[in-house]
């Protein structure tokens, strides 16, 4: 069954995205989102059977934005791996320095939804798998031994940069990510 697409549905997702990211997934009730949009519970439930369905829609939207940004950076690099990593790190740094930054929405969601079989965790896991695969494809031309392990290490660096951008100095997150990526790749060459 395909979700109904409408301006109200999009407004619900937009309001939920702002509230979920700023306050946390569990802290924001469906009623809070309904109130923010100025609609009714009937309208809400016409678009989302449960609040978790709205959380999934929020995360899918965030995933699309991240994939677009990373894909654009890789595309602009024209096949140069170091340039691609630099552009990804610049994007990460810009996000970390943006007002209201609270870290990675996927790491945050995983902390709030520990059940690996929940629909929310499945979206988190799918997005993380996409990132890992993207890193592995990015470094493939380097013909490094155990590219999967290198991709795992790059993912770990990305996660650390997102957490450090929230808990530490956001201006340093992107640069630290890039230096870490370069060090991991050099160590495997």
From TrEMBL:
The lineage of its organism: Bacteria, Bacillati, Actinomycetota, Actinomycetes, Micromonosporales. It comes from Paractinoplanes globisporus. This is TetR/AcrR family transcriptional regulator. InterPro entries: Homeodomain-like_sf, HTH-type_TetR-like_transc_reg, HTH_TetR, Tet_transcr_reg_TetR-rel_C_sf. Residues 29-48 bind DNA. PROSITE patterns: HTH_TETR_2. It holds the Pfam family TetR_N. Keywords: DNA-binding. Residues 6-66 form the HTH tetR-type domain. The keyword DNA-binding applies. It comes from the Bacteria. PANTHER family: HTH-TYPE TRANSCRIPTIONAL REGULATOR RUTR, HTH-TYPE TRANSCRIPTIONAL REPRESSOR BDCR. Gene3D superfamilies: Tetracycline Repressor, domain 2.
């Amino acid at each position: 069954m395909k979700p109904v697409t409408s301006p109200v549905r999009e407004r619900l997702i937009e309001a939920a995205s702002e509230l979920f990211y700023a306050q946390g997934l569990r802290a924001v009730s469906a009623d809070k989102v309904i109130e923010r949009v100025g609609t009714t519970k009937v309208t809400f439930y016409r678009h989302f059977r449960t609040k978790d369905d709205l959380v999934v829609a929020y995360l899918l939207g965030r995933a699309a934005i991240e994939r677009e940004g990373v894909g654009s950076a890789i595309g602009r690099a024209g096949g140069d791996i170091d340039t691609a990593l630099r552009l990804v790190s610049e994007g990460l740094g810009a996000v970390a320095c943006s007002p209201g930054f609270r870290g990675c929405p996927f790491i945050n969601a995983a902390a709030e939804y520990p059940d690996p079989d929940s629909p929310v965790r499945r979206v988190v896991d799918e997005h993380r798998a996409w990132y890992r695969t993207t890193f592995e494809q990015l470094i493939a031309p380097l013909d490094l031994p155990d590219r999967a392990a290198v991709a795992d290490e790059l993912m770990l660096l990305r996660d650390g940069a997102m957490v450090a951008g929230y808990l530490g100095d956001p201006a340093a997150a992107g640069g630290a990510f890039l230096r870490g990526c370069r060090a991991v790749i050099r160590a495997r060459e």
